[in-house]
Amino acid sequence: MKKYIYSVISILLVCASCTKDEVPANYSIDYTNPQLFFEELEYHGAVLISKSGNDIIRKGFGMANHETGESNTVTTKFRIGSVSKTLTGMGIIQLKRDGLIASFDQSLSDLDPLFSSFSEITLRQLLMHQSGIPDYIPMVEDAAKTGEAISPIKICELLEEHISSEGLVFTPGTSMQYSNSNYLLAAVLIEKLAGSSYENYIHQNILQPLNMQHTEMGTNSIPSQGYAQGYNGTQNVSDYPMAITIGAGCWTSSVEDMEIWCKAVMEDEWLTEEEKNVIWGLDVAAETTVFGMSWFVSNINNKTFIWHGGDIDGFSSLIGFIPESEGVIIALSNEQDNTAIIRNTIIETILHNEF
Question: Where is the Beta-lactamase-related domain (predicted)?
Answer without folding.
Answer: 46-338
